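Hey L., structure's done. Input below.
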Amino acid sequence: MALRVIQWATGGVGRAAIEGILLHPELELVGCWVHSDAKNGKDVGEILGTDAIGVVATSSKDEILAMEADCVVYSPMIPDRNEVADILRSGKNVVTPVGWFYPTERDGAPLAAACAESGTTLHGTGINPGGITELHPLMFSALSSAVTYVRGEEFSDIRTYNAPDVVRHIMMFGGKPEDAMDGPMMGLLSGGFIQSARMCLDALGFSKEAEVRPRQEVAVATAPIDTPIGVIEPGLVAGQRFIWEGFVGEQVVVHIAVNWLMGEENLEPAWTFGPEGERFEVEIKGDPNAFVTIKGWQPETVEEGLVRNPGVVATAMHCVNSIPYVVAADPGIKTYLDLPLIAGRAHPDLA
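Output:
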């Protein structure tokens, strides 16, 4: 019998997750929570722009909590711990790309209690964080000994991210440099990326005294840059780097970073993606070293990305493909270190 799944929120990740659920041979979509009144009461197929699928979206949390389901893919823009606890207590497992990748015992305690109370499981997963920044460095480290350094890093054109209000008003692109440096983004990102760094430090056995230090860098436009969020005028933010480094003493042993640019022209400092272009990278220093470049999770053009961004799709599929493993797991908060190898499934035409 197929596992019954509810999708919570239908932004870019949520819509891609629904597509993945519908294609997965072990899953069945049975419910969908939406934030906006405009989507409330609509068939989920209409929200996706496809034929009706027979599942009606609701903005009622009570309706969702009362539904019979095995798992909820929880993907709002901003996570709500109390909301997640309510879902877990309703008897539904939760898979989410927005947090709890490797929570501290203190941070995870309320949700661990909800899991214990209802016999459910919570798993945080995604791509960045939730994949490239901890799962992949750890996976490739298995091929080395005496590891001294691991790195997971993203290089992306942020013009392809189809969330203009987020890009301008939360990420602060197109704003003043001082506003971006004092804005909310470093705090919002650090919640997940520090967990990634800590997972690497702990799993690899680096010193318990290791310290994670965040930093942020900004590039500004030197000429007007035309972008999907409007023209970015000279002197305003057109590139940002967010970096989290794990130190043992003064030696960097873990490096996690995102490099987000509004293209590669007219920037100061003159940042570029380099000859490799947009990509994700994983690096291991040990015996032997490893250097891995991952392509395919960024669109070929800005226009393609605004329609369907493969990085967003990859984030969603990592959630969807983990559902059978999470449902089968013992109750509690489970990370990659607790679950078996998670794999995708064959295309229906080839199964």
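Residues 78 and 188 are 9 Å apart (CA to CA). The chain has a mean pLDDT of 96.

-- N.
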